[in-house]
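Help needed: design a sequence for this.
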């Protein structure tokens, strides 16, 4: 087949049908762009957790050693002990690191890092020196404080006020340096240790082996004992992935459904293309065009749409990944850290491009194969009659069979890291419903024809559209399937978000019956835990109107033998209702877990879980299961006194204040406010304000779902318009309107 035929048949169509090509390209571009943005943001979130755990400047370091006793509890003398051990001659370099999360300018979250500039890589030091050459010598460089460019742009000032739970100080004359990811302040480790008064201890050690081997971790664990924690880079990556897996899967599934909607639109476009070119196809086949060449003609148009649309989608995906509108939030990831990463992994680019192109090929395979197999006489006969015979009942039977089989697969009681059975079940159910549409169309049309036969001629214009649906059921099936997917996605996400929001409000009323709650607004804005002083509990207890107090603490990075979870520690004694599961706790190693954690991790009452504490690994017993709306992976609940023993406590996230029944609420509020006046960052919230605070947090987390819902709706509308363009207002239908019904119908009826 000559290239001229390809050119005339392929590109001439797009030249003369610009609107149809635009709709197909728009659908593919949006679908691929959404898939790229969610995938990229998921990878960035995982990398942000890994970089934080490894101190950001990983280099060739493969092993991390930290203390089980908490942060800044690793003695520097350990470096000498490891270096002098002859059995550890595979260690090339040991680098100490200091790392602490801080609040900058009372609202921005950052990480203060101390590096041994003499010991760290020469390449990194050279980068710092060359960026500031001509202004400082090496000695000045060692005594300077550096700031990452992303953090510098966010702060926009040369002076930074830094605050932690125990220290407040300011830093001026910061030197900006470039790095991929992280809101970082950095200086020489000795200066950082002196500034934060760590008593000669560091946060962790990074080890560079001559050649990394898995048994090196076991060797170090045996030598160091239970007071130290040894982790490899792969261990940290796995924990980071586990911490985000459920949230990433939610985004992946939703974006994948949006991409399927777009590919349905490609198939719909190719079906419309077949109808609009059927006479030309009949002439070409009469002239000797083979089935293979016919298939190639149609599939090449789909590949053209797929390649061009996917390429545009890559650009849209990169743009979407930079916007807050498309950025996800989770309890374990800070959006401010996520935004500091600019690069998208090459694997994400290739996956998005491949899915768009391969999906376009597969979505056009059926119409292309049909075009290649049909005979010229059948094309011309069907073209003149406008009737395509379809065995709707057989398709219905196949569809119902698929619905039954894949519904069973979707509920198959097997759990794995990736919900393969659930995804297969959803895919099969979608295909099953789609195959049922032709029969549904037929019954729908027959029913309405019965009604129209009993009416006057004022509804005669509807017969044209109904007749089109009756004769061209397959051409309308993909449009209906696209709208079905989009509608179900929008309804599902709406119900999910609204249900979660209502449940959260009910939970706040049930779990937080306190009249007032104290929070630290600066820590809350920066996303850092703590900030409410411990001594405040004693001062508040002196107020006569106060009945009881509940100190509340959150730890989002708790490591267990089943993955990373969030711990909520609070005063169990304040929950004194008869049905409160907190009353079941008797021993210090007994805990409660959230219902979603029990379901996802197959926990039952009486099970044990090993948790990393400052005292080493400790076994805790699950005494009860409770509804708890916080972490998507699950939450462990522990009495605040037990938490302080096992993890230490530098400050509360909040303090709940319960008043006596006859207490004057206004007088109590004034008394509490006088105590809080000593710290401008502490704020007193009533029940309504607390509920609004939680609801706002839920809206931020579900904001990405609202974005996906809107995008899916836009893609579905594009599909509907594309279908109308190809099927309902084609040249043949317009000819029928103008010549047959034109004299009797007005413009509004023709539009309907």
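Sure. Designed sequence:
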């Amino acid at each position: 087949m000559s290239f001229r035929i390809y050119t005339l048949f392929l590109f001439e169509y797009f030249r003369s049908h610009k609107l149809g090509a635009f709709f197909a390209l728009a659908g593919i571009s949006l679908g691929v762009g959404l898939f790229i943005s969610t995938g990229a943001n998921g990878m960035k979130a995982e990398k942000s957790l890994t970089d934080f755990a490894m101190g950001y400047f990983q280099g060739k370091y493969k092993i991390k050693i930290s203390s089980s006793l908490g942060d800044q509890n690793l003695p520097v003398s350990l470096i000498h002990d490891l270096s002098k051990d002859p059995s550890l001659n595979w260690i090339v370099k040991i680098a100490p690191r200091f790392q602490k999360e801080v609040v900058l300018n009372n609202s921005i979250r950052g990480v203060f890092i101390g590096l041994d500039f003499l010991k760290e890589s020469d390449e990194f030091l050279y980068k710092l020196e060359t960026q500031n050459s001509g202004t400082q010598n090496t000695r000045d460089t060692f005594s300077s404080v550096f700031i990452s460019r992303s953090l510098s742009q966010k702060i926009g000032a040369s002076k930074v006020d830094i605050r932690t739970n125990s220290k407040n100080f300011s830093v001026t004359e910061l030197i900006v340096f470039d790095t991929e990811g992280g809101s970082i302040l950095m200086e020489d480790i000795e200066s950082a240790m002196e500034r934060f008064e760590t008593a000669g201890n560091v946060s962790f050690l990074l080890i560079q082996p001559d050649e990394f081997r898995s048994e090196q971790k076991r060797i170090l664990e045996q030598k160091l004992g239970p007071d130290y924690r040894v982790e490899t880079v792969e261990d940290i990556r796995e924990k980071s992935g586990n911490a985000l897996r459920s949230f990433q899967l939610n985004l992946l599934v939703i974006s994948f459904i949006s991409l399927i909607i777009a590919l349905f639109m490609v198939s719909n476009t190719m079906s419309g293309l077949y109808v609009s070119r059927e006479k030309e196809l009949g002439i070409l086949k009469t002239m000797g065009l083979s089935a293979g060449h016919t298939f190639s003609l149609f599939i090449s148009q789909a590949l053209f749409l797929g390649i061009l649309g996917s390429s545009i989608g890559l650009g849209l995906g990169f743009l979407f990944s930079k916007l807050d509108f498309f950025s996800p939030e989770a309890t374990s990831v800070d959006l401010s850290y996520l935004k500091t990463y600019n690069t998208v992994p090459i694997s994400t680019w290739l996956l998005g491009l491949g899915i768009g192109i391969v999906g376009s090929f597969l979505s056009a395979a059926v119409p292309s194969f049909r075009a290649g197999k049909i005979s010229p006489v059948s094309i011309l006969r069907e073209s003149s009659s406008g009737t395509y015979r379809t065995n709707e009942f057989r398709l219905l039977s196949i569809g119902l069979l698929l619905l039954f089989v894949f519904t069973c697969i979707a509920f198959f009681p097997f759990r794995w890291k990736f919900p393969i059975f659930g995804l297969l079940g959803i895919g099969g159910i979608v295909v099953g419903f789609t195959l049922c549409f032709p029969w549904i169309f037929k019954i729908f049309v027959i029913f309405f024809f019965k009604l129209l036969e009993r009416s006057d001629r004022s509804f005669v214009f509807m017969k044209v559209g109904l007749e089109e649906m009756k004769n061209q059921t397959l051409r309308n099936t993909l449009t209906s399937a696209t709208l079905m997917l989009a509608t179900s996605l929008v309804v599902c996400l709406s119900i999910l978000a609204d249900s979660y929001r209502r449940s959260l409000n009910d939970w706040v009323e049930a779990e937080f019956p306190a009249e007032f709650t104290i929070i630290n607004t600066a820590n809350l804005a920066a996303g850092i835990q703590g900030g409410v002083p411990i001594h405040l509990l004693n001062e508040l207890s002196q107020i006569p109107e106060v009945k009881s107090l509940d100190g509340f603490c959150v730890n989002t990075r708790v490591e267990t033998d089943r993955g990373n979870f969030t711990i909520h520690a609070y005063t169990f004694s304040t929950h004194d209702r008869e049905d409160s599961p907190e009353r079941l706790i008797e021993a210090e190693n007994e805990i409660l877990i959230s219902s979603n954690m029990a379901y996802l991790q197959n926990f039952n009452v009486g099970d044990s879980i090993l948790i990393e504490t400052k005292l080493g690994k400790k076994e805790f017993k699950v005494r009860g299961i409770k509804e708890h709306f916080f972490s998507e992976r699950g939450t462990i609940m522990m009495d605040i006194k037990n938490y302080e023993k096992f993890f230490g406590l530098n400050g509360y996230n909040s303090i709940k204040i319960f008043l006596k029944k006859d207490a004057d609420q206004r007088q109590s509020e004034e008394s509490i406010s006088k105590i809080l006046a000593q710290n401008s960052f502490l704020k007193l919230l009533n029940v309504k304000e607390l509920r609004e605070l939680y609801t706002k947090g839920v809206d931020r987390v579900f904001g990405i779902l609202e974005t996906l819902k809107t995008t899916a709706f836009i893609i579905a509308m594009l599909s509907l318009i594309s279908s109308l363009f190809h099927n309902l207002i084609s040249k043949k239908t317009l000819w029928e309107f103008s010549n047959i019904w034109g004299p009797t119908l007005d413009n509004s009826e023709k539009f309907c």
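The chain has a mean pLDDT of 75.
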